[in-house]
Amino acid sequence: MKVSIHHSFDDIPESARSLCVSTAPVRWFDSLDWYQCLFSTALGGVRLRIYVVSDDAGSALACLFCCTHKAQGRELASLSNYYTMEFSPVVKIGVDAKSAFAALADYIGAERPRWHTIRLDYLKKSNSMAAMFADALARSGFAVHRHHQYENWYLDCPDTSFEDYFAARPSRLRNTIERKGRKLYKSHQVTFVLFRKPEDDIEQGVRDYVMVYNSSWKQPEPHPGFMPRLARCLAAHDCLRLGVLYVDGKPVAAQFWITTRTEACIYKLAYDEQYADLSVGAVLSREMFRLALDVDRAARIDYGVGSEAYKQEWMSAKQEIVGARAYSRKTTRGLGQIVSARLRAIAKRMLDRPA
Q: Are strands 300-302 and 264-271 parallel, antiparallel or unpaired?
């Protein structure tokens, strides 16, 4: 196996490009379109560093999308930020991932000047590839420390109909939606529109989504170009599920879902606060869950990053999202970070100890 480094998306070998393009309908956050969208609209000031592991014939086996920040010195970071739901190396199906990661970790460990830190964020506990790569860094000589970042609520729902799913929700949630829904449809003209493919006038859907978002309790997007480009990329792969609820012709609730062959991810949602008493957000959620279960037949519904209380009513389980820091034992700064990490771990154990 051999490893190569590339500093632009255009420089990626064709076999690596094909590998990362093919993942879009299956694992969106591993796809080349995802990384290009994130980098071009929401990651200013970083330099790309894309690692490609290839076999002796030059065919790509695995890719790792990273970046460096000038202010951080010799720190290698995952190509991710607060828009990321999950980060992992991209691995070709059927490849011996352990061997590919060993070659990659050894290569990174041998780079000069040495890296003080490898920083990986948004690693889901259920993602074996992410865990395997962190373990490879440890075997290569780095001191790897994992820490809690977020919770991720999800619902495993293979062969589940919406009717069965909704019947299992807490009675308070069901009764609220049914009561407010009847009132809403009785007193207003209500329309649900799904924007999914390029021919569905995605631009209009995004404009209405932004209108709702700006009328909600949420802060405006720090990178206004990100969501429109993401919507276009997703629509090209039929992975976009942008649902908008209109009341008397006005968009009042919007939900942005990312749906692949394996799961439906609830990525962004908002509603106009002027319509909060009509529970327009929950009414729209009912339509989106119906779509995910009865039309897309999703095997899992993922509620993204965060542990907001309302997610528990819609989901059934949660897992941890962790960050990993791999510190070099061969640099002064790396050794200092190892000591600091161990002291923090000792302090945490002491604070957590029962009185």
A: parallel
How many structural domains are present in the chain? 2
Does residue 8 fall inside a structural domain?
yes
**Directed axis angle between helix 226-236 and helix 32-42, to 10°?**
160
- For 308-323, b where at least 16 C-beta lie within 10 A, e where not — what string? eeebeebbeeeeebbb
Indicate if 338 and 283 belong to the same structural domain: no
Q: Do 182 and 106 reside in the same domain of the chain? A: no
> What is the pTM assigned to this prediction?
0.94
Q: Is residue 311 assigned to a domain?
A: no
Q: Single out the residue of 311, 325, 337, 305 nearest to residue 81, CA to CA.
A: 305
pLDDT tens per residue, range 59-101: 999 999 999 998 788 999 999 999 999 999 999 999 999 999 9
Please give the residue range of the domain that contains residue 36: 2-152+319-352
Alpha-carbon span 109 to 141, nearest angstrom? 8
